[in-house]
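Annex B. Sample input.
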Amino acid sequence: MKPISRREFISKILNTGVGLSLWPLVSACSDVAGNRSFHKKIVILGIDGLDPDLLRGFIGEGVMPNFQRLMGHGSFSRMQSSIPPQSPVAWSDFTVGASATVHGIYDFIHRDPKTMIPYFSTSQVLESKHSIGIGDWKIPLSSGKVKLLREGKAFWEYLEEAEIPATIYKMPGNFPVASRRANCVSGMGTPDILGSYGTFSFYTTAPTLKYKEVTGGRIFPVAIRENKIVSELIGPVNSLKKEQSNIKLPFLVWIDPQNNVAKIQIQNCELMLTPGEWSDWIQLSFDYLPHVKSTKGICKIFLKQIRPEFEMYISPINIDPTEQALPVTSPTSYGKEIVQKIGLFGTKGLPADTKALSYGVLSDEQYLQLSQQILDENKKALQFEMDRLQSRSGGVLFFYFSNIDQDSHMFWRAIDKKHPQYSSTMMGRHADVIRDLYVEMDRVLGDVYQTFDLRDDRFRLIVMSDHGFAPFYRCFNLNTWLLRNGYISLSHGGSEDDTTFFQNVDWSKSKAYGLGINALYLNIRGRERYGIVSDQDGPQLLMKLRKELLDLKDPVTGANAISRVWLGKDLFHRGDDKVPDMIIGWNRGFRSSWETILGGFPPDVFVDNDDKWSGDHCIDPMLVPAVLLSNKKITLQYPSLHDVTATILAECNIPIPGYMTGKPLYLI
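Annex B, continued. Sample output.
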């Protein structure tokens, strides 16, 4: 099954232009001493995707002594994830101490029922509403706006009110960042400078790759003439130009005819790279109006090979933390402070380039090199923040790690013989990738022990994940199933090949549709743009769909594809139009296809997952519980994400608000 090419429309959802019509955003800088009466030091390590079964197994092997020490000194527990167990949903649960009933994030993808246009669920970039035309230019009269779509009050806002120093480093779903006193770095949901979740550039003379269509990146054919390559790096759309063209940065590559080395020149940067070598972060400037307005970005260059074919990868262009086109730190001066201490750091919300690996632009080894760079960068930042907290009388530090999640997605195929992408060669080369990442996290925990005293009654350490992990063997094409069973109709003459993003759907004859990873919606009259299902008929239709989906078996494996189903109105007590009518809890080994997520209709209902994205967690949350460890004994039975939030407030002597559903993990 080949990934659909038009999935790249995701990048266009945010492509109203990161920093395009947004004049430089400045947040107030505050260097506060904090509450002098608060003498606790609380560290929360958020390790995305840390799985309880894998963790116990590696501890049993004796390779994770620091986790074993924490379990012995305090507690280990499985923890309830969110419904559904998607990262933006789960971390939002933790952020506000309650479910989507409060924060309003249900999936990676939401849709506007009035237009049927999908959008990213956590943030929105809006251009200036007013502008004037001068020749070829369109000059905005006011700044644009970046809107955080997560609702509710984040726990660190309560800390700010109590004047307790807090640092929130890369909390998923926290973009744009805006804080009064806390130091914040934005996390998952932060776009690159193009406005996408990450768009790489790949330049090659290789004929087999020249015209390959990919999502999450662009392939540029190049030619070598007199040992020189001339090409361009595509930047953001210039919204000040009436034709809305992309800003392009020309660059040159000189290839040494005798030696295996190349010199790359782009703007004021000159690099000498050999094949297999990565550059550090380099800073670039994209000018909208010469000498008036520009946007700064950072990227890395990887020279894959020079001969027999030239291949060069340029990472997605991240927002420069020292000159921010959009707010990735709060205050903005905090970004410069981090750079002074550890150097330039990546700001894109999903830092690993999984698409480059899926399409073979980066090999397994090259992807893992980049993954290690991401981890090393974060370890430096963590040490910087721990040293800061240690120098204070008290405070709270939340620090997030993405590596286990993203690399478990990509390398589950190396540990699971049942996976369609498994091979003995893969196992021989990469069987220990996930294990090694867990060991790296154990070393991180060891760094915490070197900085703080685990036995100090005024020190609290919490290690948590948002969900566990599972294999992703089989793709279920929900919209194809709805089509085959009469719930969706295509327009007369419409082809299933043209139905990505619901093209050629006859809404006047369609009752339900799937969008996102776990969501199903009814085509409700008065809510959807072309709705036909009445409020009276909706409940009966949902019950019918629920029964049929729960009874559905994979004809190849004989297993049920779906484990559990929830009705949105019963699960989330909200009256807004964003709430899915049904949340689908996939069974272990199954998940909605990439095409389903964006309204596609592949030919078959069930297909093997032949993508390197081989592990997943967006299934029944009971099948992928999260992890919780603490240096204090946990007395609460089967805790939830909400309970961790309540515990943080209780430790800080802050009353737990009534809307929060959690309870302290232990007696405080």
